[in-house]
Amino acid sequence: MARPRSQFVCQNCGTVHARWAGKCDGCGEWNTLVEEGTSGGIGSGPQMARKARAGTPVTLTTLSGDIEDAPRIRTGIEELDRVTGGGFVRGSALLVGGDPGIGKSTLLTQAAAALAEKGHRIVYVSGEEAVAQIRLRAQRIGVADKPVELAAETNVENILATLEGGRRPDLVILDSIQTLWTDMADSAPGTVTQVRAAAQAMIRYAKSTGAAIVLVGHVTKEGQIAGPRVVEHMVDGVLYFEGEGGHHYRILRTVKNRFGPTDEIGVFEMGDKGLREVPNPSELFMGDRTAAAPGTAVFAAMEGTRPLLVEIQALVAPSPLGTPRRAVIGWDASRLSMVLAVLEAHCGVRFSQHDVYLNVAGGYRISEPAADVAVAAALISSLTGLALPHDCVYFGEISLSGAIRPVSHASSRLKESEKLGFTQAVMPPGNEEIVGGIWSRAYRPRELADLVVRIAG
Ligand code: TYD
Ligand code: MG
């Protein structure tokens, strides 16, 4: 008799190993391998014995419409509709990931309520909370009277049977994917095999009925339960809901979108009555700018198609240590080292006897190299003790040779700055055509050394 075979699946990345190991070959994480049976894995079992059925191919030209007018369901929550690319797409699957407690269920309850109010059939399936708890949350955010259908269920076959009854749903929310399990796989709920099989069954349901589905996924510490990463490639879109500890704002970020742009963000604020949209996030990340203080510079950033002003704060202080400290919050530490090195090598500014601390206001995280110039300005301002003009914005990339290089979307950055009352800019050379009006005085140095002279005198 054949022994039932088993395999070891990494709960972080899904790599299958024939035998147990401490470290996963696929992603290099430790202690993430969990034994899962293969006998009842996806695609085995009696279902596979059925006869093949021929499909009917269609040509591209016979398909009407294009991606632009994919039938969408708009929630009316602007910050959410922007990141999905204009609303949930019918027949598609969207994954919303994020840390536990960040507000995923709150966001989706609000979206569900907004859509149900417009007459759509919305089913909210929760595997984590009882129906009464979902209702409590709905009460708290003031939407308990909206006709959202609630179900507390974790078995995929039961969920599908529930959805069969009544009118075809427009949107089904599954909260969360890690609690779902299907009879098709025999591993424990939360393992890679179960999460994948359950997601696959729900995605198949979406494609065949035209209902949009949203899978909620917790980002988990390695080794516990399978993270949302293992279904990222199966779904049509991936959104991540992020926030910094101690701050109330939350950012919804598009990571993947088959039907829209992938670099959009939506900004929300968590209050005691749920999530509130923040249509003008620049105000949130600018700090208190009533008085000009040395060491602060405003960076005109871009998030997707959206300009955003962020305050950068630097503190440069004489160091008592042999090796001075470098600490960064909200930016790339190696990028800071690079800017410091360029300032030393090409501009004669010495930091070797100084501790350097860099912070981005509001707990925001910057990923753009366009922040280089703003960082350099904040560093020089702190080192010299000279405050920068309070109505000036900064952006531009610094190269290792000390040159200031152009960045994209200069006009959007300037437009947002003007809206918020800024009248001066330090920006890269080029873009002559857009530097009209109040920006004709914009300072456009080619070399970082010129900027240093301007700030430090
Ligand atoms: P929740 O949506 O349950 O998070 P997730 O589904 O991502 O795990 O949100 C939980 C947190 O949000 C919890 O700490 C309570 C807080 N919260 C508020 O501050 N205000 C509110 O109106 C609601 C509903 C939740
Ligand atoms: Mg939740």
From TrEMBL:
Belongs to the RecA family. RadA subfamily. Keywords: ATP-binding, DNA damage, DNA repair, DNA-binding, Hydrolase, Metal-binding, Nucleotide-binding, Stress response, Zinc, Zinc-finger. Residues 69-219 form the RecA family profile domain. A motif (RadA KNRFG motif) lies at residues 256-260. This is DNA repair protein RadA. ATP binds at residues 98-105. CDD domains: RadA_SMS_N. It comes from the Bacteria. The middle region has homology to RecA with ATPase motifs including the RadA KNRFG motif, while the C-terminus is homologous to Lon protease. InterPro entries: AAA+_ATPase, DNA_repair_RadA, P-loop_NTPase, RecA_ATP-bd, Ribosomal_Su5_D2-typ_SF, Ribsml_uS5_D2-typ_fold_subgr, Rubredoxin_2. DNA-dependent ATPase involved in processing of recombination intermediates, plays a role in repairing DNA breaks. Stimulates the branch migration of RecA-mediated strand transfer reactions, allowing the 3' invading strand to extend heteroduplex DNA faster. Binds ssDNA in the presence of ADP but not other nucleotides, has ATPase activity that is stimulated by ssDNA and various branched DNA structures, but inhibited by SSB. Does not have RecA's homology-searching function. Plays a role in repairing double-strand DNA breaks, probably involving stabilizing or processing branched DNA or blocked replication forks. It holds the Pfam family AAA_25. Residues 355-457 are annotated as: Lon-protease-like. NCBIfam families: sms (TIGR00416).
